[in-house]
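Hello Y.,

Per our agreement to keep a running log of every chain we model this quarter, I'm adding this entry. I've kept the format consistent with earlier entries: sequence first, then predicted structure.
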Amino acid sequence: MNLDKDLSPSLDLATSEPTTSPTEATGELAQIVAQVQEIADRDRADPLALLLLLRTLEQIHREIQQGYFQSALPNSRQSLFALLRDIEENGGWPYIQRWKLQKLLANLPESEQLQSEWQNLDRNRQ
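Predicted structure for the entry above:
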């Protein structure tokens, strides 16, 4: 996967409008999704490679959310309403959830002992 590729649509500086149509962007995203899925499939038995992939996706998510998305938020009530309606109709806010260490430990054979040790540590910190 080429992480150096600029995922944002190019802007026409005279109009500040994206020059990539939604259809073109959808096609580009479909290609990127296919590449990411190929990488995940290829590395399915390598937890470190998969962890790197997940970390990279999370970093990209954070950069888009905190940079491009926040600066692109609407500045009129109508536009904001349209965005909120789209979020409601099409599945809410995008979020990449981090696993808690306890959920990972549940998959290990000796997990019961480790889980109780983690719970004891949590109780002692509180």
